[in-house]
Amino acid sequence: MPSVKIPRKSTDFDMTPFVDVAFLILSFFMLATKFKPQEPVEITTPNSVSSDILPENDALMVTIDKDNRVFFSAFAEKEPSRLDDIINSINTSKGLNLTPAELQNFRKTVAVGVPFSQLKSLLDVPADQQINLKQAGIPVDTTGGELTYWIQAAKSAFAGRPLKYLIKGDGQSKYPSFDAVLTALKKNDQFKFNLITAPEDAPKGTELYDARHASGAKAK
Amino acid sequence: MASIDTGGGDSGHKKGPGVKKAKRLSTRVDMTPMCDLGFLLITFFIFTTTMQTPTTMDLNMPKDTDKKEEQNEVKQSSVLTIMLGKGDQVYYYEGQLKVDATGNNFQQGTFKGIRDVIINKKKEVMSRYVADPKDEEIKQKAKEKGDPNWEKAALDKDFVVIIKPDPDATYKNTVDILDEMTINNVKRFAMVKITDDEYALIKKTEESNGIK
Q: Are A173 and B171 within 8 A, CB to CB?
């Protein structure tokens, strides 16, 4: 009896397209990802249930680290000349006698965390080495302190554009420094702020949880 | 799965003895490890990107004013004052602070328990609601916003939470309590500086409880 011979097929297959796709996706993610911006200090933000997205342009950020030091930074990727306006107005109003090179350096400075008296020595250091420098923090007190002038300068430099005020505080920082930052902002007639937080789910059984889940996915 | 080509399996002795044919090596490479690595990196990038997005929380502060007509008046019976202290402790009282022989309404709690306190107080205030023709406006606004419970929007209009962080409270506590306002849908709340009396009271309580 002739037996039926089943042709043995190879289990090999070509992996090349698979690999192609994998690397295509990989390169997409690598290019689309933004790396964490350089920060003067490590900040662990507290969690909150809010789901608003962080604005990244035309924004001022006040950072409070866990030792209650206050840092000031401005974001103006589209128009860096506005940063020059800030430092120029600080330079003239406070009589700091900064050199043109030092003024230029402010553009690249990630964050300022020194009193006006030490600003010159901070801007003397190239921007990429400032991170190694021990910054004392901008002096703030119950009346706002020097931060008031920074915000004032930034506000006039960004005049005519909606400017966002971000506050990024470390969870361990104490309330008085946060209050002092709020005072400095309030002195400049700013009453709307954004607190940077890490996302968190709404706890089950609460009104917010019910509201978010009742309206389905659109509430996201 | 792809595997290494074993190469000229049938290049036997066709040319006869003595004639050595150079073994033909395959140019095919096993792609599996490369593929593995690719996907490993993809997973890594996917995870790191989604987890690093920070969010922001809106905070609107009123302008400080001394003028009587610009200040808001609140009913004493519908106010809940929450104070934040050292070591993640919360202190609260309803209405006006009263610490004397006739009664003590100064209470201590934790962040876990404060939610129930807020919810209970809110319910209590809502149960005492008296209809007012002015409330139609609030209802209408809620309806326009697409609130499914717009009929009940005016019920808690009297409910006010006053937040008083003391100098020992951390920023995290402050954000947590503001979050609690969002979670429990408290529409009216205010951040106020703590008074000396209240701070002294918290200090005393902390000392007796041994919180450092």
A: yes
